[in-house]
Amino acid sequence: MKNLLSACVGLLLMPLSAFAAEIGDDGLHKTSWMRDTFKDLGEDLAEATSEGKRLMVIIEQRGCLYCKKMHEEVFPDEEIAALIQDHYFVVQINMFGDVEVTDFDGDSLPEKDMVRKWGVLFTPTLLFFPENVPEDASAAKVAVATMPGAFSRFTTFNLLNWVVEKGYDGDESFQKYHARKLTEQAQ
What we know:
Blueprint: H1 2-13, E1 22-23, E2 29-30, E3 34-35, H2 41-50, E4 54-60, H3 65-74, H4 78-87, E5 88-94, E6 100-102, E7 108-110, H5 111-118, E8 125-128, H6 139-142, E9 145-148, H7 153-164, H8 174-186
Parallel strand pairs: 3-5, 4-5
Antiparallel strand pairs: 1-2, 4-8, 6-7, 8-9
């Protein structure tokens, strides 16, 4: 409890500009940990792997209240921001955008059509990928985890860690991992 109180006081004393995500010309939030790529998932995965990072795709849309919540309340958390910066290669996709995206299977479509192909309905949606993906696979089928929507700091932090720790390869589901971590964090 004392650590939680200290953390809260520390956050209140920090300038809000330290956490501000800018809004880009496309109306989406932009952070320092997002990568500006050609949106070729095979190339992005290779670059992420060469850096020892995991590929994460975040799908957002202009005016999304839940995207705003994540960018203002969750992603600025020091532990989460550091975890993303240290372990993830993040590519942003605009749910209704026209920029060409190349899927692992070679399909090249505008963002809005690729999102439809993947069956993504909510923003934000975070897709996490393994280090190796077959060339004929679609991103929606090979994602090791998908987070559709805005979640709390603890859920997001624990999911990011579960993916880094390759929990999806083990016997402990994310829900059990998360429950165990919440219990540990409360002690």
